[in-house]
Amino acid sequence: MSHHGFGSTHSSNTAEIPVAPTIYTMTGTLVLLRHGQSTWNELNLFTGWHDVELTDQGVREAAAAGATMKEAGLVFDIAHTSLLRRAIETNQLALSAMGLNIPIERTWRLNERHYGALQGLDKKETTLRHGAEQTMIWRRSFDVPPPPVDATSPEHPANDPRYQQLIAQGLDASLLPATECLADVLVRVLPYWNDVITPQLREGKNVLVTAHGNSLRALVMHLEKISRDDIVEFNIPTGVPRLYELSDALTVKAVKYMGDQEAIAAAAEAVAKQASGNH
Predict the structure, then answer these.
(1) Could you say which of 35, 80, 114, 212 is catalytic?
(2) CA quadruple 99, 100, 105, 110: dihedral sign
């Protein structure tokens, strides 16, 4: 098990006390990674739970994220991802670039926000049809979901064999959304964070979470104590690892994006422009 954290932060006393790090347990390192560009990202369509693949650029982003983490000396003990192909592929490509073969846990709770009746629609066209204000409320408000998808639609997860299987295994079908706002995503992500990921970090495991813009925004909101107003303007670029140094109480001691900071800022700005339809 790796206990690699942030450089030599914990080595200042090694001259006087030559104790190996494995003797004690320190909180593990956490990295959040948004999947690389998907085909519907490229087409500027509302994607949500619709299962699409990575573009060639998305594949490169995922591999580059792995190379960046490897170069920084990071080693993970376990990874978590969603049930959607674009996150699963990104996770696999990043770990492969790192030369890691570790346990991977997949959960619907890390899926992207369900965009309801907007799924499959063009973002710019939706803005023109419904107005920038209404579209922005649907897209980025904390607690106003888009119109729900019809229960008979193929876009409703209850009609997808993957989620039907989960229901057969005991999942409460009412938990599967017809639409979601960020507040809904927070409600479904937090139990997984508290019950699954948190104990692993407390055991000193280094954890990679590869997911989606909104499921990661929900985690960032919780971890970094970002207000419901400020989270509206918080954009996560695709394929850029976000590295956390956590205290024993799992509060954030330090956080940063890994890689070329100017390129990361440009990528986040591109996400912001896409969100507003100004692209």
Answers:
(1) 35
(2) negative
